[in-house]
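Issue 218. Parser rejects a valid record. Input:
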Amino acid sequence: MGSADAAVLAEKMDTRREAVVQYANLAGGERGGLVDVEKHVSRRYVPTEEGGRAYIGKGLPERQVLDSFEETIPMRDLQSHPLAKIAIGWMRKKGWIAIRDGGVVQKTGRTAPPGPDEAAFARLGESGAIEDGDGVADLAKRGLVEEEETVAYTVSVTPPRGRELLSQGLDLREEVGGTLTREQILSGEWKDLPLRRYDVTKLPKRAYPGKTHPPYQRLIDEMRRILFDMGFEEMAGGIVQSSFWNFDALFQPQDHPAREMQDTFFLGERWPLPAGYERVRDMHEHGGETSSTGWGGNLERREGGAVRAPDPHDEPLHPAPGEPPHPPVKAFCIGRVYRREAVDPTHLAEFEQLEGGIVMDEDVNLRHLLGFLKEFYAKMGFEKVRFRPGYFPYTEPSVEPEVYVDGLGWVELGGAGIFRQEVTALRDRAPGARVGGSRDQPGGDAPAGGAAGSPAALQERRRVGPGDAHLRREAVIWE
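Output the parser choked on:
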């Protein structure tokens, strides 16, 4: 009395059984105490689709084959039976047959009454399902039956509180738990509505709305932490930079592909050229006061020229002439960059780019730079690192770092090199000071020199599986 199956209640309430159980749990427990919910778990075994159902009503394979011949039969004839591959082994295991010289199969003469497995299988054929018992485990091992779990819930009214409330009658009107309308408030109708009760003394469920977006942002944070541990400092800059700082100050030729619209977004603003731009112009036209011959031609005098988005870091990393940082300096930048790109599962028009590190110190050489890069990639989880000779307009010598990624092979990560004299001479460097720089990009190609993959993007692929990357042909490799 006062109890019912949750499935029966769900049918009467025209709802799902899971909803009934949820309502009952809300009414029960410490807060309600009006009903009890009991969970009943039962297990039974049913025939499998692949094997068990094929033998229902016919018997196990070994019994069917045993009944198909008299006392003896040639092995060749026995093997022609469609169930022979399964049955012969089980008949021998149960001691029903023996194989004599000459390949003759002979019954052992023992009576072969149904064993526990056959008895269980016979019950299965009669009822369609059986409880656990003798022989069932053997049938399960052979893949003839599988376990099926059934969960049932019984909801019972608790004495005395639940039954007392039930005897008083229940208000089955739907509670109003949402926002009251203006009309309900002005008319006073809200006083007669079945409002949902709230316990203002109870603390609300704790919410944690913010988190680091996995896994890409965590990898960017990991790169930043590694560079801090290596003694680098972080720099930041605006999204939009002038063509002067983005190209000209880096000794980028006027006809370099990075200046085209594929890699650069141009805006309509015109910015004035900084004081001392003539030194950059002379460097491009004839090498200025260095031994360089420059690029030749006449550098067009533009007041700001185009404004570019794909590299937000050039201005702080390449300060104006006359305001150089003093060695030693180790710096990097990580920020959002943009480019014209067809969006697909492996390409976006915006991505994070790492400029780092920029190393400036007395007597820094290429071996120091390669050491920094190897250490960084090792901390990112890439054990195998190598360097390929490369070319960039503003560094010489230049290299392209590659790491080995399982499933992808050797993958190029970016570009690096010693800044050319045409770049460092514009910064009033002290004699002997050298600058090394590397460029890595998560999810895109380097604007100067070209690169595929990056520490962040490839670290993500290494953890979740191979992804899209561009592989370079074999050539000279510096280990």
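Fixed in the parser; the record now loads. The chain has a mean pLDDT of 76.
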